[in-house]
Amino acid sequence: MKRDRRILHLLISGGLIAAAWLWSWGGGGQILMAAAAAVAGLPIAHRAVYSLRYRVIGIELLVTVATIGALVIGEYWEAAAVTFLFQLGGTLEAYTLGKTRSSLQKLMSLAPDRAVVRRSGAELEVPAEEVAAGDTVLVRSGERIAVDGLVLAGHGLVNQAAITGESVPVQREPGQPLFSGSVLEVGYLEVRADRVGSETTFSRVLQLVEEAQDAKAPTQRFVDRFARYYTPAAMALAVLVYLVTRDIEKALTLLVIACPGALVIATPVAVVAGIGAAARRGVLLKGGEALERAARVAAVAFDKTGTLTQGRPEVTAVRSFRLEESELIRLASGAELRSEHHLARAILRRAERDGIVPPEIEAFEVRPGLGVEARLAGGSGLVLAGSRRLMARHGITVPADVEQYAAEEEARGETAVLVALGDRVVGVLLVADPVRPEAPESVASLRQEGIQQIVMLTGDHAAAAASVAKEVGVDQVHAALLPEDKVRLLRGYRDSTGLPIAMVGDGVNDAPSLAAADLGVAMGGSGTDAAMETADMVILSDRLDRLAEGIRISRATVRIMRQNLVFAVAVVLLLLAGVLQGSVFLAGGMLIHEASVLLVILNAMRLVRLSSRAQDATARPVGGATPMDAGSV
Description:
The chain is of the alpha+beta class. It has 23 helices and 20 strands.
């Protein structure tokens, strides 16, 4: 409505100015010029008075005073031109600013509003907000998914671009997660609703993006403080010029062109555009302050599990010594069937993948830190699955060839699970958490962005950490760390070098480290709520390679902010010099002033179209990066 009223005032004012020009050929037109100034100027004056009620002296007050002064001295054309150009600039500014917020508007338009659920054997279509946790949601081709949940049945291709920024659909089948706001392009899915309503990933993203776009960057806060003092100073300068020169037109011209419009808009428009560009790439920056922090990052510390690795251990090798391989897996899966340990889940997934059905178990016992004991049904014997210490507990000797094999693989970072039947070791299962396929390239991309030190901070044992570090190419490894150890190392690095460091993690135990780092980065796809809430940047796509893109966009945004500020200040200084020299007049100065505002906005809008690969937005941290020694991080 505000936009429509502004356009209406603009059209009427422009029509009156055109009529006045035609009338001026016959010697008239002053009344129409004054009317044009009133039509375009009254909304400006209203905003000026409204701001004064809150003790804010803004650009509208400068324009209003200048317009009234021009009318008083009979400069009707100048008054009409100033108000018309100011309204025109405001309308175009609102339009272009709306463009920079299009990412949020597009997200909101993708919000699912209906869902089909199965209750008491019947299919019901209900509003999305009425779906309850635990409901089974039925999704057909072309429908938008209304909940976060797990696929119970069916197969399909799911477009997750609204959440993760991935334009290529992903295959989803039973046991795999789904995000609300995604679209099932082909197939049929039955989904267990785990998060509903405001708790879904889609709703949280909307909330965080809205908060981020409203949060001010440090540079923006400085400009706001500067503008509060600058506006009264500009009015005082105009009065001084009039007292010295007795030239009211020059004083009014100075008053108008001194308005810091481009300066005030320079930072917020860039921040909003940068956050929008990052959001479309699956990277959520929580406001201008987080954006500026990301631009300054000089080093990156990674957690291992779920960050550099997939966080989903898998059986990588099976070595049977006395049984068929399938029988070894059958026995091991039977022993681990009731266990909640992550190694047990890996063994059970392998059995499921190979179509192996675990045997029935009569008795089961977990030995913390050692493994599991299970007695097979029908008196078939005792099955053990675990460490060498579990074997020793039962008086079972591990053969030398088995011991050598397990030791060699553990030195490569694998976890060896020994399996015994009765009093003999019958095989070894090797379990490892695979490295993310994109991790090595992601680390290389960070180096291209000027990150000179990349380290791993993990609670895992040294051999596994060293194996992952070698594969992905990090500089240093710190293993067997508790959460407080990670915080201590991060603070030690910052204190010793004075350079900002980012921490990337996904678990509850990473939350203290994310808070302690200069920039906390959470893996949003697999990350916990604690990590996502603590972090400054959230990688919604769960793709590690998006970290470098987030930093690249942040640095491009800060660079454009600086360009805008330098340009805005230069324009004001040049115009002021032109007024004092008598070469810049009211209408012309106003035209240049509004053009500078639009150029600042258009420069920021380049971020909206920013392509992570096509645009070179690389920037180096100020001062470079200091190598991270073992005494710090």
